[in-house]
What we know:
By secondary structure, the chain is mostly beta strands.
Amino acid sequence: MIEVKKVHAFTGHSGAVYSLEKSNDEALFYSGSSDKYLAQWNLKQLIPEKFAAQFPAIVYAICLVAEQNILLVGTSAGSIHVIDLSKKEEIKILQHHTDAVFNIKYNIQEQVFYSVGADGNFAVCSLALLSLIKIKKLCNAKVRAIDFSLVSNELAIASSDCYIRIFDIKTLDLKKEFIAHQLAANCLRYSPDGLYLLSGGRDAHLNVWNVPMNYSSEKSIPAHNFAIYDIVYSPDKRMFATASRDKTIKIWDAQTFELLVRINKENYDGHVNSVNKLLWSNYKNQLISCGDDRSILIWDIQLT
């Protein structure tokens, strides 16, 4: 059995909300929007924090580098802005992408961060120097998402050309590429144990790939009515959630891949437009969702 309760709705952005990211304080989190603002919110007090930053373009990606207390903010202009959180000021702007930056992830073991964007490029930058190490043109389509696994030491990238590409995490050599969806591959996530790679596409399918079996197809689930935009695991690793353009969030059993609950406007007072991003917080195991309706919703999800 599963219990779902809507805890709160944060409002304040004047445009669609595209990005969510944790903070060094587990009761706080960040959001980024088409209104070109990055905001911070308090889950404990259910209020907006005083911290906010304005950028020259839409905020599509936020990445907290916890160990360095910096935020990497990717925009629709292809820029990555580096924010020093202790000083609360911008310390650098990187402009190696020529179009929107959709996703940023960092790897503390390799001392790098990765970014992908609408220009079809995959970039690797130094965390120490905050400078470009390498950039690769992967395709002529938009590159949407990136994730990596320290179990297999591999990095996976999803693109609008329907492909997922797998790279060696140390050498960055291409190990495998395969057509993952009938339409654009939008998002992906390695399971916490590293055994599976989950991907979501514009074809509305949730696909499960067996990592030790050379990414062979494990399952293909017609999970939503429209494109899937994000996949996140719960902190306790028992569940994962998917977000879709069909205005719903779905919660799944992480072991069986069975659907546990569908969260929508009618049943749970959910989003009224596309759900763009998810963040499953360590604070009270709360799930955070945001979308085109400009709202950020907080959910209490409990298995009973």
